[in-house]
# Entry
Amino acid sequence: MKRTWIIITFIIVAVIGILYIWGNNKESSVVEQKTVRIAYLPITHALPVFAVKELETSDSPVQVELVKYGSWPELMDALNTGKVDGATALVELGVKAREQGIDVRAVALGHKEGNIIITNNDIHSAQDLKGKTFAIPHKQSSHNILAHLMLEKAGLTTADVKIVEMSPPEMPAALAVGQIAGYTVAEPFGSLAIALNRGTVFDDPQALWHDNICCALLLNGTFVDTHPDLAKAFTKAYIDAGIYLDEHPEEQERIAKQYMKFDEQVIKRSLEVISYKDLALTESLYGELVNHMKQQGLITTAPAYEEFVDTSLLP
# Structure
């Protein structure tokens, strides 16, 4: 009998120990799940995610780990495969991924305006671009759309001007040495060429495509389905950060300097041509985007708005 009670006592103690360890592990996992990994490129268009990090406190409902990448393909591979939970990225890359069956969802814009078209100082009209090379950051980009609209406006085609993909940091130097005659890109790489007196603003993106959109906050679908409350908390923090940037323009430059290694003059100018007000990715904005993508052969079948934009996460 005594031996039986010893065994029973041992079992009870063991069960209590297991439950204690399990409880601690569960608590730890909850803490870990409070962190969201967000990929970015160091450009002005990513300022809202920088602001989320800067506004973060120890008791914030979500903690953000920012993961820097050097190129769009590398960043999108991390997002598509779940190495990161989300990213601020070219919206066209998200649309294309969704068309290919990859569960990537947009929840908001990254900014409004903020794109720029730059040419060297010898280009005075679109006709001067004939026979020359013009750079874009990626085929799946609003910059590619803008480049085609610019040529179309002047009665030119890609048979007249060679369009090439080039990493944004390489563009100002390539322009300076005559490798390219111009480029369209996200800021601050346009302002950098201007500051170096190597380029000039050639055309107004707003005149080519009114309310053109470029970057968006994308989330990995598996992350959203697995941690819906965390995804919703991060989305709210992101929207709040956009409102904060809009209401505190003096903070934009300070935050940008924390994550972008450019001269103050370049950052200041790049922020003058971008807006973080009202970052909603509306159905009308999306519809215009996919129409441009279809016309230029960037997609065949556009995902439905409800399929690509997850409005359930919005506050």
Remarks:
- The mean pLDDT is 91.
- Residues 58 and 64 are 11 Å apart (CA to CA).
- The two ends are 63 Å apart (CA to CA).
- The longest strand covers residues 35-40.
